[in-house]
Automatic annotation (TrEMBL):
GO terms for biological process: proteolysis. This is Peptidoglycan binding-like domain-containing protein. Residues 1-27 form the signal peptide. It comes from the Bacteria. GO terms for cellular component: outer membrane-bounded periplasmic space. It holds the Pfam family PG_binding_1.
Length: 321
């Protein structure tokens, strides 16, 4: 969202004021467990699937919160005396994420290793063995997060690790930097998983890679040139060109002669299909796509798609599904 809309959001976004791009000790001051539920996908869902297996509720390791994962979550919640709603919020995360340390070997360690690989590029073998390499990666993360460095993965380390943003694979993406913000491509585990699925599906149509503008900084916080993108659930993508050269031939608007409405429509449909129930809104000012109910109008959104993802029970109503 561009600067023109800052005034209308400033009060609702006060809860993110503590998120800055400063020292690691400050970056995590507002860390919380990102809620995951049916329709989500990505690194955090994979961690849930490993943790369910640890608790005797094994399901396929798809990284997709599918019907099987939903059923296993509900069974786990029932067994633990939690509210049975299929939504993995703070209480369910807290019950799932058991403490692990050097010498442990189980599926909870696999969940940890998968998280460290996704969030910190740790390069660990996901084998469930909490050996020296995993211990080093944990200590490095704890130092990075500004929390106690003891190698023990308890509630605080789990919460900070799940909260930490993820970085997308660039296989089907070209990185654009329209506002001079560098690699501001970080977002929540779910947002990244959902974008990766959508752009992979679009790549299968043979119409080129998808340009990624800004998403967020590694630890959230204000991004110059934007009124949002503070909380890891806003992602800017560029529309598609008729020559499929959107990554090399320059930025266009929906009014441009080289704008490909049909291809852009496909991309938007794939974005929505990759995250059922978790796309709050897509702002893009093509009146035809607005009339079709695929996008919504907002000033300064002629030249990019602003995808806002959402979670169940998010601290801000702006991001609550």
């Amino acid at each position: 969202m561009r600067l023109a809309t800052r005034a209308s959001l400033i009060m609702a976004m006060l809860f993110t004021a503590v998120l800055t791009i400063g020292s690691p000790a400050q970056a995590y001051a507002n860390a919380f467990f990102h809620t995951q539920s049916s329709g989500n996908r990505g690194a955090d869902v994979l961690a849930i699937q490993y943790l369910l297996a640890h608790h005797g509720q094994a399901t396929a390791l798809t990284s997709v919160f599918d019907s099987s994962t939903d059923a296993r979550v509900r069974a786990f919640q029932s067994a633990k005396g939690l509210g049975v709603d299929g939504i993995v919020g703070p209480a369910s995360w807290g019950a799932l994420a058991v403490t692990v340390r050097l010498g442990d070997n189980n599926n909870a360690v696999r969940a940890l290793q998968a998280q460290l690989n996704a969030k910190r590029s740790a390069g660990l073998v996901v084998d469930g063995d909490f050996g020296p390499a995993t211990d080093t990666a944990v200590r490095n993360f704890q130092s990075h997060a500004g929390i106690g460095v003891d190698g023990v993965v308890g509630p605080t380390t789990w919460r900070n690790l799940v909260w930490h943003y993820d970085y997308p694979s660039m296989t089907n993406i070209c990185d654009q930097n329209p506002d001079g913000n560098g690699t501001a491509n970080w977002a929540t585990g779910a947002a990244i998983g959902q974008v990766e699925k959508a752009v992979a599906d679009f790549a299968g149509t043979g119409q080129g890679k998808v340009p990624l503008g800004d998403a967020g900084f590694e630890h959230g916080g204000t991004i110059p040139g934007h009124a949002s993108h503070d909380v890891g659930l806003d992602v800017d993508l560029w529309p598609i060109r008729t020559d499929s050269a959107q990554c090399t031939a320059g930025r266009i608007t929906w009014q441009s002669s080289t704008y490909d409405r049909a291809a852009t429509r496909q991309l938007i449909q794939m974005i929505r299909a990759a995250a059922p129930g978790h796309v709050k809104v897509i702002w893009f000012n093509d009146p035809t796509l607005i009339a079709e109910g695929l996008t919504a109008q907002l000033s300064n959104h002629d030249n990019h798609l602003h995808v806002r993802y959402c979670e169940k029970v998010h601290p801000s109503s702006l991001y609550d599904c």
